[in-house]
Fold these 2 entries.
Entry 1:
Amino acid sequence: MSLILTPNIESPDDFYEVLTEAQREMTDEQANDMNARLVLILANQIGSLSRLKEAVALSQ
Amino acid sequence: MLNTYDFPEFDYVQSDEQVSGTAARHSVVIVGAGPMGLTAALDFAARGLKVVVLDDNNTVSVGSRAVCYAKRPLEIWDRLGVAQKMLDKGIEWKLGRVFFRDQEVYQFDLLPEDGHKIPAFINLQQYYLEEYMVEACNQHPSIDLRWKHKVVSLNQHDDHVELAVETPDGIFQMEAEWLLACDGANSDTRRMVGADFTGHFFQDRFLIADIVMKADFPTERWFWFDPDFHRGQSALLHKQSDDVWRLDFQLGWDCDPEVEKRPENIIPRVKAMIGEDVDFELEWASVYQFACRRIDDFRFGRVLFAGDAAHQVSPFGARGANTGVQDIDNLSWKLAAVIRGEAPVALLDTYNTERAFAADDNLMNSTRSTDFITPKNSASKRFRNAVLDLAKKAKFAQPLVNSGRLSTPTPYVDSPLNTDDAGDWAGQMRPGTCAADAPISKGGKPGWLLEELSDGFSLLALGVDVVPVDAGVFTPKLLSLGKDFEDDEGLISQRYDASEGALYLIRPDQHIAARWRSFDAGAVKAAISKATGGPNK
Ligand SMILES: Cc1cc2nc3c(=O)[nH]c(=O)nc-3n(C[C@H](O)[C@H](O)[C@H](O)COP(=O)(O)OP(=O)(O)OC[C@H]3O[C@@H](n4cnc5c(N)ncnc54)[C@H](O)[C@@H]3O)c2cc1C
C-alpha cells in the first residue's frame, strides 16, 4: 500500500488547532524541536520504509 | 607517558638476497606487518604457501588504535591458532549505556546468544594483538618476517611484480608472483599502482586518550551525547586490559590539534569526565580526523589490497581491523588455489566482488554513525536530539540512537560463487553467510562445530544420507550428524533449519556456498565448481 494522499485526518480543523495551540507560546527554537520529535513519533506510526520514503520525497 | 607496555624491538636481519644482489622470485610477498599483514602471513602459511612479510618499522602498533574485536575475526584467529591468548588477555563486555546530557537514555546488551565458542566482543590494545601474531609468525617455518624493509617502488609484469626495497643496508630488488598490500591507510603501494582511494573526510576532530586508572567503573561501553562535562560534543569511555581505559572526546572542527594534544589541556577534560578525585595517568593521546573511503578495486593485476590499505572507516562501530581480517579470510584460500593452479586467476576477482561489497556495507554503517554523532547541520542536530529525548521516554526511538553499530560480518548475498537456494528456508543461514558456530559432542566429548570444519570444503549433512563426493583437490570433508558428531543441544538443527533435513556446502573460509534438502552428488560438484571459479581439477 502506498501513502494516503486523499483526506484522512479526522476533523482537520480540530487537528490544526491542536498543532497551532501546542506551539502558540513557543519560541521558534522550541517549536522546531517539537516538530522534530513529532516527525519521529508520526514516522513510527507509519512504520513502512517505502511509505516513509514517499512522504520524505513529497515534502522535499 | 606509556607505562603499562614495553614495546618490543624486533631485530633487523639483512637477507641473503640483499647480500647476494640477485633478485629472488617469491610466490607471495606481503607489504606491512600490521594486524592484516600478520593475519595474512598466518593464513597463507596455514594453507601451505611460503610468505615473506616486509615492514618498514620494527615494533608493534604505537599509540591509541584498535580496541574492540568482534566474534568473527576472533573465530578466524582461532582457526589460525592465535585467539586463545587474545581471549585470555582481553576484556569481555556486552553492555553499552548511552547518555544524553546528564541522563541515561537507554542501555543495550549485545546479547551474545549462548552456544558459541567465541564471545560477541573483547577489548584489547592493538599492540598485544600484533605481539601475539608476531610470536606465532616467528614459530612458523614458512613465514619470513623482515623488519626495517620498506617497499619504495614497484613494477608490474604479466606474471610477477618487481619490488625495490630499502633497508638500513640500502636498496635491493625482489620479485613476487603475488603482492599483498597491507600497508595501511596511507598505503604507498596504492599510490604506486595509481589506485583511487575515494570517499569523504569528516570535518571534525577527536581527542583519543588512553589512561591508566584503578577505578570501579563497570566493564561497559559508555557513550555520551552532549554531556555536561563536555558540552556540545560527544564522549566515550571503554575499558581495555591492564587497567587502561580508552577515552574519546569529540572536539569539533575549529580546534587546534596541537594545542589539544598537550597534557595540560587533556588532564582537565579527563577529570571532568571521570571525577576530580580519581587517580589516573595519561598513557597516550592523539588527535584524529576520521574518513570513510575505499580503493576502487581490491586487485590491480598481481597486486592485491587488504585492510586499511583497501578501506578506511571511522572507528565508531569498531569496523577497521574487524573487517580487514575478513578480507584475509576471503582471500587466502582463493590465492592458495590460484597459486597451486587449482583455480583460474579469475577467482581472485571474486575477492574484489565479495570484499568491496563488504567494505561498502561497512562504509555505509560508519558514515551513518558518524552523521548521527556529529550532525552536519542544525536540522540534523535537532533530529538527533529529538531521537535522544524521545528514547528516554519511548522505546520506539531507541533503535534510532546510533552511537556506532558494532561490526558484524556482511553476508555475500549476491556473490557469483553462491548457488541459489531452492525451496523455503528459515533462520539466519543462507548462501553467502558465514557458518554459525554451535556446540557439538564427539564420542561424548564436547566441542564446537567450527572446529570440525575442514581447511578446504566441508559437506555438513544434517539428517540427510550422503556418500563421498569426488571433486578432485576440492573434495569436501564429510561431516554427518549422528555419525561424526552429535547435536545434543539441538542448536545446529535450529541454526541451520535442519528439522526436515539439510545439507550444507561450506567454503574453506567457513562461508555457505550452497544448501539442499536432499543429496545429489552432481549438484554438490556443480556447486563446488561454481564456488571455485571453474571446472573441478
Ligand atoms: C582511534 C582508533 C580506534 C580504532 N578502533 C578500532 C577498533 O576498536 N576495532 C577495530 O577493528 N579497528 C579499530 N581501528 C582501526 C584499526 O586500527 C585498523 O583498521 C588496523 O590497524 C588496520 O590494520 P592494517 O594492518 O590494515 O594497517 P596498519 O595497522 O596501518 O599497518 C600497516 C603496516 O604497514 C607498514 N608499512 C607502511 N608502509 C610500508 C612500506 N612502504 N613498506 C613496508 N611496510 C610499510 C606500517 O609500518 C605498518 O606496520 C581503530 C583505529 C583508530 C585510529
Entry 2:
Amino acid sequence: MSAKIDLENVSCDFGSFRAVDNANVSIEPGEFFSFLGPSGCGKTTILRMISGFIEPTEGAIKIGGKDMRGQRPNQRPTALIFQNLALFPLMPIWENISFGLEVRGVDKATRRKKAEELLELVDLKGAADKMVSQLSGGQKQRVAIARALAVEPSVMLLDEPLSALDLKLRQHMRAELRAIQKRTGVTFIYITHDQGEALAMSDRVGVMSQGRIQQIANPRDIYNAPINGFVAGFVGENNIFEGKSGAIAAGMAGFDTAYGTLRARINDDAKGKALRLYVRPEHTLLSAAKAEENSIPVTVSEVSFEGAFISVLCHSDDGKLIVAELRNDGSATVPDIGTKLHASFAAARAALLPDANVRG
Amino acid sequence: MSDLIRRYGVTITALMCLLVAFWLVMLVIVPNITLFEQSFRPYLPVVDVGGPKDVYSLGNYAKVFDGSIERSFFGIPYMIPVHVMTFGLTIWYSIVVTVACFALAYPLAFFMAKIANPKSLPTLLLLLFIPLWVSEVLRAFAWWIILAFKGPLNALLLAIGAIEAPVRWIVDYDGVVIGLTYTYVLFMLFPIYNAIASLDTNQIEAADDLGAPWWKIHLRIVLPHAKPGIASGCVMVFMLSAGSLLVPSILGSTTSQWFTQTIDQWFKDALDWNTASAYAFILLLLCTIFVSIALKVFKVKLSDIAK
Ligand SMILES: Nc1ncnc2c1ncn2[C@@H]1O[C@H](COP(=O)(O)OP(=O)(O)OP(=O)(O)O)[C@@H](O)[C@H]1O
Ligand SMILES: [Mg+2]
C-alpha cells in the first residue's frame, strides 16, 4: 500500500506572500522522502497541500497519478502526523488509534482488535486502555503513528514529529520510524529542520529555502555535492572563500582569491554566476610544509575538543577564520596555539557554488 | 492571607476583609435568612405577630398544593394544583429556552472560535455586545413590538411571502420563550466560545484527515471538549430563565404564567411576604436539585464548570 506522489509546478500564496514557489518533486512509492529547511521556508505548507488542508495556488498535486485538486483531506489516501501530534485527550488510546476506523463504520470488536495489532506494531502493547495524558512523549509519538497507520494510508505525512523529544529518544525514534516504514512499505514524507535527522533517515532529501526547493538528492549527494551555497551551509560546516572564477576545464576551475588562485570543482551551469568556494572543515588539512595546491598560511588560534573530532580554528594573515577538523583517533597531532601552519585542501573536495536559488 | 498583609499592609487588608464580610453578611446572608425564617411563619395581622398564633410550620410551603384545576394529557383528564402546574411549566419552558440558546449559541461559538477571521472577531463581539447596553426592559418591549400581530416581523414575513396570513406570536408561552432566549443567549455563547477556543485546531484537522465527516468531528471531538462550557452555559441560562420576572411579565400572554410571577403576586398583590418567601425558596431549592441531577446525568463535575 503505497503511492507515487507528484508535485508539478506547485505554488502557494498567502495573500501577496508566496510561501511555496514552483515546487517540482516526484516521490516514489515506498520511498522515505524528507523536506529539510529552516523555519518558515514552507515545509508545513507543502505538507498541508499534499494532505488537502490548503489548495495550491498554482500547479497540480497527484497521488498515484490522480490529480487531487478539490479533494478534501478526508478523501485523500494520506495520513498526517501533526507537529504537536494532536491526539484526542478525551479518548483512551485504543479509541484514538481506531478513530479512523470508527468513522468508516467498522464495528467495535474489529476496531479494538486492529488497535491492539497496531499497538504491537509500534511496540506499545498493553497501553490500549490508558489515556493520552498517561503516556510519555515517545509513547505519544508511537500512538500518533499507529493512529495514522490504522486507516492504511498510501502516504504518511510527518511534520517534525520528533522535534519535541529529547536527544536520546529522538535518535531512538529515528530508527523506529525507519523500521516502521520498512515494515509497512508506506511512502513517508517527512519534514524536519534537523539536517542530521534528514540525512540519517531518508532515501532522498529535498532541501528548501524561502519557499523554493533548492536540491533533491540522496543524503550523500546532498552533503558531498551540494548544488549551491545554501545547501552546503545548511547540511554542514564550511570554510568559504570569496573570489572570481577563471576558465573551466574538465569540471575544475581556478578561483582568484586574496590567497592566490585556488582550484575547485565547478558545475557547468554555475558559469557566469557569482560564486564562492566552499570546503568542509573535515576536508581541510593542516601541515607544517606548504602543500602542492590550495595552500594558505595560517596561525592556530584555538583548539576545541568536540569528542569524536577536534576542531582547530586558524586565522590567515589577513584575519580570515579557517577551521580544520581532525579525527580524534590519534592519527593527527594536535597543534599548539600560535603554531604557524599551512591549511590546504584537495581541489576535488572543494566546490565553487552560487548562492541560494531565491526570487530576484 | 499573610501574603495579602505583606502586599497591602494591615490596614488595607483589614478594610478589604471587612468590606467583603459586610457585603456577605448584610447584603446576602441576613436578608436571605430573614426571608427563610419568615417563610415558616404564618401571615398574620400586625397585632398577632409574635403572639400565640405566630408559630413555625410548613403551611406556607404546602400552599402550592392548594386549588387544583383540571387538565388533560393526550385526552386523559387529571387534576393538578395550579401552582404546581405553573412551576412545572416554568421548568419546562426554561428547558426549552436553554435548548434554544444552545442551538443558537453553539454554531455561532464554533464559527467565532474556529472559522471567523481573528481580525473581524472584535467587530463581531461588539455587535453582540451592543444590544446589552440597552436596558432589559427596553429590549423586552422592543420584542413586544417586533412580535406584535401588526408588527414588523409579520410585515416582513408577509412581504417576502414566507407566510400567507399574519401569525400571532405572543400566544401561550411563545413570546416568553423568544424573549428569554434573546435575553440570555450570550450567557450560553461565551462559555461555549471559551471552551471551543481552547480546543487545539489540529485536533479538528486530525479528525478530518482521518476521514471523519463534519458531524462526527463535532460529536466526538468538539462537543466533548466543550462540555464543561456547555454545562456552565446551560446552568446559567436555565437558572436565569427560571428566575426571570421581567420578560415573562412583558412578553407573557393571557395564558402564560411564570412561577416568579406567582411569587411576585404573593409579595405585591397579596402582601403575604411569608408565603412569597416560601415559594421563592421552593423555586431555588427545586431548581438547584434539578440542575444537580442534570449535571450528574451528563457526567459533568462542578469543578470542571468553575474552570
Ligand atoms: N495561514 C497563513 N497565512 C499567512 N502566512 C502563512 C500562513 N501559513 C504559513 N504562512 C507563512 O508561510 C511561510 C511558510 O510557513 P510554513 O508553516 O510552511 O513554514 P515551515 O517551513 O513549516 O516552518 P517551521 O519549521 O517553523 O514549522 C512562513 O513565512 C509563514 O509565515
Ligand atoms: Mg512547520
